[in-house]
Amino acid sequence: MSIRWLAGAAATMAAAALLLPSPASASASGTGSGGHAASSAPAALTAPAALTAPAAPATVAKRLFGAWLRGDRAAAARVASPSAVNTLFSYVYRAPDGFTGCTGNRCRFTHTSVRVPGGLNGILMIVSGTKVTRVYESRHLTRPSTAAAYLFSAWQKGDRDRGLEVASTAAVSSLFRTKFDPAGVTYYRQGCTAEPKGFSCAYSYEGGAMLMHVTGSRSSGYEVRSISYIAD
Fold first, then answer.
1. What dihedral angle (degrees, nearest 10) is formed by the CA atoms of 149, 152, 157, 162?
2. How many other CB atoms sit within 10 Å of the CB of residue 188?
3. Burial class (CB in 10 A: 0-12, 13-18, 19+), 166
4. Where are the beta strands (DSSP E) in the chain?
């Protein structure tokens, strides 16, 4: 082997060594042994973000119900609006013992062992997103005229659930069969008079009157049981 060939080979190897990066420079440039560029971002950032599904209405409603049972207003405030919390914490009857589920965003807790006034029979929660935004509940009203006025106000507002707080399902269905028209006939509150099974609370208008038949007692609470109409 000639000295000239050895010298040429050594020069070629030296030139190749200059062209190849050192292990340190390869690591700094992010090049792995396979020649592919390594990501400089942490693995956790390159993985797809986990998608968190919003809580179901039933879950939100049960969280509020549980906070109420514990008397924990702070926990209740985390899952409900201030007005919903205030309404729920003012409930005068024992806690409903049945959960009848949710229809859309409307979740109900009902009584199975206690008789309360109204067709609502417990508590209705309206859920929006992660919070209960409104609570309807069976009301304890101690005057027949108050029950009648409450139902009449619910009719004016077009709010059936509010009506069911103090009136039977039949009474609410009868009243809401016609939509209240603020530009229509004027109703005049005529007060309540005793009748054989309770009280009759009248609202007169031109051409007739609407009678709300109220039953109950001061201790158990009054409710509107039925509605009738008379013509002049």
1. 70
2. 11
3. buried
4. 98-103, 106-110, 122-128, 131-137, 188-195, 198-205, 208-217, 221-231
- The neighbouring-strand residues paired with 132 are 80, 127
b/e map of 60-86 (b: 16 or more CB within 10 Å)? Answer: bbbbbbebbeeeeeebbeebbbeebbe
- The Cα 175–Cα 109 span in angstroms is 25
pLDDT at position 52 is 60
- How far, in Å, CA of 144 to CA of 209, rounded? 18
- Could you give the angle at the alpha carbon of 161 between the alpha carbons of 212 and 176, nearest 5°? 50
Convert the pLDDT of each residue in 59-80 to its tens digit.
999 999 999 999 999 999 999 9
Give me the mean pLDDT over the 25-52 stretch.
43
Question: How many angstroms separate the most distant Cα atoms in the chain?
Answer: 135
